[in-house]
Fold this sequence. Notes:
By secondary structure, the protein is mainly alpha-helical.
Amino acid sequence: MTQTVPISEEQVRQLVDSFYGKIRADADLEPIFERVVAGDWETHLAKMYDFWSSVMLTTGRYKGNPVAVHQRIEGLEIGFFDRWLDLFGESCDELLDEETAGLFWLKAVRIAESLKLAVFYRPDRRWPESAA
């Protein structure tokens, strides 16, 4: 897929804001995020602007380790990643043209799969059915 329209920082910001608005209204995800964010959504959103800018625009602004962060989250369940993707996809579809939404979606799916493997995969255990 060759992108014809460049992605802008403004699109990144709007997508992050929309997505986290959905997270904050979600009965399953909001409690997990609130425990991690501890009410400081501004700092978290700024970090997510940097993360998605780095992912989509290769700006290199994000400095962090998402795997280590997610490994420390108490109460995180593998199915939460599917809900995360549902909400992210909704935001993409609402805000972006089909091509741009598809580019963000592909990255989000890869990120979710990588985090699921890093956080939940144990070679000595069966992979959870809900993760298939």
